[in-house]
Amino acid sequence: MTVETIAHCAAGDMMPPEKMTLSEKLLWHELRDLYREFRAGTVTKEQGEKRKQEAIGEYDKNAYREELYHKYMLANANIWFRIEEKAKTYRENPTIENADAFLNAVYGTTFRELISEKWKDGGNSTSDSAPTAQATKTE
Questions:
Q1: Torsion of CA 103, 109, 111, 116, to 10 degrees
Q2: Can you tell me the distance from the alpha carbon of 62 to that of 17, in angstroms, rounded to the nearest whole number?
Q3: How far apart are CA 58 and CA 94, in angstroms?
């Protein structure tokens, strides 16, 4: 739905269409209240224009956030779908290849890649390893 359509509905004090996003509903309510205040004489035309532009700016931000949230939710659902799919395949046929496919779905890597990264310096890496005990001399 366009901003112009929302503004037209709000200006005419018409009910908005059923299928509106939350950001569209919020803009409609803000503009409807603004137009009511303008008709009641509590807001000047200049104040109304300024508040309308502010409301549209907030709508743009909210619509962008909604779009990002929607994309995030779809990506998250897709990740969980792939993980479940690979877990099911591994349960039905527990092979190294299926285990690697599961690890790839969960971590974006395979077991061999994890091992080669961990042991690329001969297993002497201290960044991921547990601290070692050192003997101390007491007097």
A1: -160
A2: 19
A3: 52
Helix (H, G, I), strand (E, B) or coil at 109: coil
From residue 13, how far is each of 10, 35, 50, 53 by CA, in Å?
5, 8, 20, 19
Q: What is the pLDDT of residues 7-52, one digit of tens each?
A: 999 998 788 778 899 999 999 999 999 999 999 999 999 999 999 9
Q: What is the largest CA-CA distance in the chain?
A: 91
User: Under 8 Å CB-to-CB from 25, ≥6 apart: which residues?
Assistant: 16
Residue 58 included in any domain: yes
Structural domain count, the chain: 1
In this structure, which amino acid lies at residue 105? A
Expressed as residue numbers, the domain containing 48 is: 3-118
